[in-house]
Each structure stands twice: as C-alpha cells, then as structure tokens.
Design a protein that fits this description.
Jelly Rolls, 18 strands, 430 residues, 5-stranded antiparallel β-sheet, alpha+beta
C-alpha cells in the first residue's frame, strides 16, 4: 500500500512542481527576484540597515495584497504579528546560528515563530552545517515518542529541495540512560551515522510528543569535530552586513514563498474534500501528509471519520491560510494525535471541525473562522487512508456519533486547555 502511495505521490509531486513553477513565473517576478537575491554586498552598517528597513517596510505592505488574508481587522493584526515573528526567526537564524564552522542548534518553529505549516506535536531544532565536514550530535531521547533527524540542501521556501534519509529513534543506539551519539558526515563513520550530501547546509531535528502531560523534551548538543573548546573570530562589519542581507532574503522568501507554494498546491482541490496523503519533498521520508481545505458557513461543522490507521504516529491539525501557521494550539484544542483522540465504540475515530464546541470528544476548534486548512499526518502507517467527511449543521453532530459517546462539558474542556498551556510553555519557554 505504501509503495503504491509513493508512486502516486511522485506523479502528483511532479504535477504540483510544474504548477508551482508556472504559478511563480506567471505572477510575482518581483517576489522571485527578492527570494533569490544574493547576499547584500554593502559593507557600511548604516547602508545595510537602510536596505533592511526598506525591505521590511515593503513586506508590511506586501501582506496587504489580495493573495494574503487582510479583509478584516483580525486578519491584518494577525499578519502584523506573523511578520514580526518571521523577522525574529530570520535574524536569529543568521546572527546567532549563521556559522557552519561553529554549528549550534536553534529551537525553531515554536508556538510564537511558526512558518511552513509545522507539526504542533514536534519540537524543531536546526543548525547550519557544510557538506564536507564531520559533526557529532550528542543527545538524550529517553522520554521521546520518536525523533526524526535529517540533513537538507536548505530551506524549501528559498528554492532548495533535497534531503537525506531520515534517522528515527529505532535507528539510534541508546545507553541505559537514553543517551546517544550520532555522526553526521559525507563518509561512513563507526557507530550511528547519517550521510549528508555535499550540498547539504542544514541539520534538521524533529522530536515527537504525543502525551502532552510530559515535560521532558530531550537534550541535544551539536559540535563540528575538531572545534571543541575553540571560539569563533569576532564578527566583522562586512560579515554582519552580509548576514543582515541574508536575513532579509530569508524573511521575504519565507513570507511570500510559503504562501505561493500552498496556494499552488491547493489549485484544483475542492472545499471540504480530503486531499490524498502523500510524501512531501524535503519532509521526513517515513511521513505522509494529507489535507482538507476548510470552508464552513455559520452554524455548520465538518465531521471527519477514519479507521485506526495503525500508525506509529498520526494527527489532525488546523492551520491558517496565508500565513500557514497552526491554530492557537496552546489556548485552544486545534490539534489531536493518536494519544489524545477518542476512539468510538465502533472502532471509528471521528473529529469535528467547528467554530462552536460540539460537546463531544475530538473537537478541532476553528477559532471562529469559516475558512482554513486541516492537515493530517501518518507516520509508518499500515492503513494510511483518505478520511470520510460529512458537512452537517451544528445541531446534527451528535447524531453521527455512537450513542455511548461521552459528553465533554465546559469544565472538562477547560481542564484540557490548561494542560495544553502548561505543556507548550514548558516545551518552548522554560
């Protein structure tokens, strides 16, 4: 089944790639020029700042154009918040983690710096590497559900496609305390090893959490072999100016590129109809993704039904169009995984996407919005199926569930949200 899906995925991927390229080339030459702009050659700090400020100001106006959500006050406020967070992420990536010689892991794509539709059950780490060197990743994975480690040619939103095979928890040698050591290099190494390509520039780590009651998130340390105990040279004005220019490139490409990528990928899809799960270029080699473009009128809900996919991991999560960041998963129930989802007495798993609380398990809160996206993920699934969906009035939701389905009252929902808030704060902020 997986083999067939991969073949179908490859064909679909080529079609989508053509669509993406056609869409980019037919609309937005200015955006493309900015996305692939070489690093700034200015060596004067004042001039570099002027250039950076001008480009950010232009981005603030860019997100008010028709291909971004800006029709309501809430949309425009969200756009300002998203751009601010992407600016922070881009600057940290260039200035705090810009050297492959002295590589360091950056916690990325958090609850406040989300981009590219991240998985809310993941904690993401990334580091700059060069494809000709050897690095060692030390870590502790004792309490992790899973981990995905790979190297990539760069960021997809900057046009860099290509990744190594994924190393997961089952492939790591852990000692009695959960510690491991992984070599990252172009040539084979003794012990655990991941092969990076000559053009690979990023090490990517995703840790998986399915039980949000846990507060143990693993520990990791990366070093380029031979640089232990050494210090980098002081940053020069020329290099600082170049990094500021590269940060602007990254920010522009992230904001515009992901919006264009998803808009092109969704061409030809229908509202409230599932998109078949498939592998995504640059994503984990063991993970397939599907989606549902959501459009709900007032008082309507979408009931989503699946059989047990018999997966190592699966989840359903909401996302915002335009920005492609997740729903407010700390303060609302906008995501559910296999540990959190209720299984009906008939063996079916039913989710409800709606603006109002339906009072049943597996509610996916749309945060009062009528449009959005639901992405679902299957990791190592035996039955990676296409969900069945039914669009119904809010009042008819309960009729689609088994009679013995438990009712979820306001106090129970609030308790769940409190747990989510604690987990997210611990995962990212302390």
């Amino acid at each position: 089944m997986i083999r067939i899906l991969r073949r179908i995925s490859s064909a679909i991927g080529l079609v989508l790639l053509g669509g993406v390229l056609g869409y980019w080339l037919s609309d937005g030459i200015t955006d493309l020029r900015r996305m692939f702009l070489p690093p700034s050659s200015q060596t004067d700090a004042a001039a570099a700042w002027d250039d950076f400020a001008e480009r950010l100001g232009a981005l603030g106006h860019r997100i008010l154009q028709d291909d971004f959500p800006n029709g309501a006050d809430r949309d425009r406020a969200e756009g300002m918040k998203h751009l601010t967070h992407i600016i922070i992420e881009g600057l940290r990536w260039e200035f705090d983690h810009g050297s492959p010689e002295f590589a360091s892991l950056m916690i990325a794509n958090t609850d406040s710096t989300s981009w590219g539709a991240p998985n809310v059950d993941n904690k993401y780490y990334r580091a700059r590497i060069d494809g000709s060197s050897t690095y060692t990743l030390h870590g502790n994975a004792k309490h992790l559900h899973d981990i995905a480690i790979q190297t990539t040619r760069g960021d997809i939103h900057q046009g860099h496609v290509g990744a190594s095979e994924t190393v997961d928890l089952s492939q790591l040698t852990l000692d009695e305390h959960g510690n491991f050591s992984l070599k990252i290099s172009p040539e084979p190494q003794q012990g655990d090893w991941i092969q990076q390509g000559a053009e690979h520039t990023i090490l990517s780590i995703r840790t998986y959490f399915v039980d949000w009651e846990t507060t143990d998130f693993g520990r990791f340390y990366l070093v380029k072999d031979g640089t232990e105990g050494l210090a980098p040279e002081p940053l020069s004005e020329r290099e600082a100016a170049a990094r500021l220019g590269r940060a602007a490139n990254w920010i522009e490409a992230n904001l515009v590129g992901w919006n264009r990528w998803f808009r092109a990928a969704l061409l030809g899809t229908n509202e409230n109809e599932p998109i078949a799960p498939r592998l995504v270029e640059g994503g984990s080699s063991a993970l397939i993704y599907g989606g549902i473009p959501l459009r709900l009128e007032d008082g309507m809900a979408l009931v989503i039904e699946i059989d047990d996919p018999h997966a190592e991991y699966f989840s359903f999560q909401t996302y915002r169009r335009g920005w492609y960041h997740p729903g407010d998963y700390a303060n609302r129930q906008t995501s559910l995984n296999q540990h959190q989802a209720h299984v009906g007495s008939d063996g079916k798993i039913r989710f409800v996407a709606s603006a109002e609380d339906p009072g049943v398990p597996n509610w996916l809160d749309t945060e009062g919005r009528g449009d959005g996206l639901i992405f679902f993920r299957y990791l190592k699934a035996e039955n990676p199926q296409l969900p069945e969906v039914v669009l119904v009035p809010q009042a008819d939701i309960v009729s689609l569930f088994p009679a013995d389905t438990p009712e979820v009252n306001a106090e129970e929902r609030r308790s769940t949200i409190s747990m989510r808030q604690r987990h997210v704060q611990h995962r990212f902020h302390n």
